[in-house]
Backbone:
């Protein structure tokens, strides 16, 4: 793919009169994995929320396929899968019901087989119809991550995907990220964990003077 | 996938979640019953005086019950970050917001209007007013749900938005209260009450068309931080 995926130019953001980042420039193309690192409070989540289009507290340009995000918003959102640090699931519903809703929001016809396969892939086979509040924190996180496998996208923006996930799960998620990048997807993530993936990894450090 | 099936998915999910939790739909209903039951005790059991006050009492209490319920429209979605998913969908927000408000009305306004004849009997409301009471409450509470959802969307990002929410939406509730209670009064006196219902219908159609735009905009602002 010759087209540039996501391009960020001269991004500046501040919070409570504190500059989070200034002059931030990077591009993210198909197959790239980009890690945003930095200490707590350095603006990692703020940056991801800006790039996901949830926050407008920034100056600078964000381009998607060489056009500004404002022009390309519908196309961008269709290609974007954002997993924030919030729960992202309704605790009273089962994983299956949660994902049916998530798929419907993305305009996908309800396909239980696909959702069950995604849940099996994240290690939740047998828990599909149990209410989410009865699952452990790590399992709830996995329900949220199962969206990666039932919603087609070109760009994953993942905010701390490894929170509450066990060691084997972390290795699995790293593998999913590598596979996705191999298939031409782009990944932008924050984590404090040292990523061990088979793809070349770029790291942007925030909060360093 | 059509907009209708999107709205249906949102509606079904909200009803399912509310059915499992219970407090969302039972709180306004219990409030409505309790407060209406207190009035005969406070005013005294004279049927004539109660009958005179009944339309106003029933409508004011229903309005307060709706106010009480309005904070819940987006609260839990905001807290568990599923609201972000709605905003990040490339599909229109309009049908999603209508579906959420409709679900809220089905859980708060509709049960109130279905139960209202019973409380009308408790307050000695003449039977001629029952139909007008039910219809005006059903239609009026739908308008209240839309107005309440605007306020809820504006204040969902605040830690303590409760009082602010009341200040925003209470003035907008007043026209609905005036026409709603006047419809019941007219019916009790045997006068035609259709004009009042028609006005409520106008309010409903206007809010159905315009409120979702305001709600969608307000949600984007609330999440933008």
Residues:
């Amino acid at each position: 793919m010759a087209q540039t995926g996501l391009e960020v130019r001269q991004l500046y953001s501040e919070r409570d009169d504190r500059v989070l980042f200034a002059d931030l420039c990077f591009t993210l193309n198909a197959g790239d994995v980009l890690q945003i690192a930095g200490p707590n409070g350095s603006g990692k989540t703020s940056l991801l929320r800006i790039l996901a289009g949830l926050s407008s507290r920034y100056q600078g340009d964000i381009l998607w396929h060489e056009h500004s995000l404002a022009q390309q918003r519908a196309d961008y959102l269709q290609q974007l899968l954002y997993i924030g640090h919030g729960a992202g699931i309704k605790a009273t519903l089962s994983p299956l019901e949660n994902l049916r809703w998530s798929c419907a929001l993305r305009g996908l016809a309800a396909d239980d087989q696909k959702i069950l396969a995604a849940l099996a892939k994240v290690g939740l086979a047998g828990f599909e119809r149990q209410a989410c509040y009865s699952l452990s924190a790590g399992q709830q996180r996995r329900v949220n991550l199962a969206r990666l496998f039932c919603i087609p996208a070109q760009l994953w923006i993942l905010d701390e995907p490894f929170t509450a996930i066990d060691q084997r799960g972390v290795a699995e998620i790293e593998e999913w990220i590598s596979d996705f990048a191999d298939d031409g997807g782009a990944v932008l993530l924050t984590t404090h964990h040292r990523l061990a993936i088979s793809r070349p990894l770029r790291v942007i450090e925030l909060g360093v003077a | 996938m059509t907009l209708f099936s999107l709205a249906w998915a949102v509606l079904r999910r909200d009803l399912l979640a509310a059915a499992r939790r219970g407090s969302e739909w039972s709180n306004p209903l219990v409030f409505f019953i309790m407060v209406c039951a207190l009035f005969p005790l406070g005013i005294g059991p004279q049927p004539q005086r109660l009958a005179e006050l009944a339309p106003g009492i029933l409508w004011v209490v229903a309005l307060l019950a709706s106010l009480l319920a309005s904070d819940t429209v987006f609260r839990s979605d905001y807290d568990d970050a599923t609201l972000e998913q709605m905003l990040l969908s490339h599909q229109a927000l309009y049908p999603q917001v209508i579906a959420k408000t409709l679900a809220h009305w089905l859980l708060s306004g509709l049960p109130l209007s279905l139960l209202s004849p019973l409380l009308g009997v408790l307050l000695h409301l003449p039977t001629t007013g029952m139909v007008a009471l039910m219809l005006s409450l059903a239609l009026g509470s739908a308008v209240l749900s839309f107005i309440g959802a605007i306020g809820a969307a504006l204040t969902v990002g605040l830690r303590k938005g409760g009082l602010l929410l009341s200040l925003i939406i209470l003035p907008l509730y007043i026209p609905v209260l005036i026409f709603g209670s006047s419809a019941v009064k007219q019916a009790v006196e045997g006068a035609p009450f259709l004009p009042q219902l028609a006005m409520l219908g106008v309010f409903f159609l206007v809010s159905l068309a315009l409120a979702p735009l305001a709600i969608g905009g307000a949600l984007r602002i609330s999440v933008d931080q």
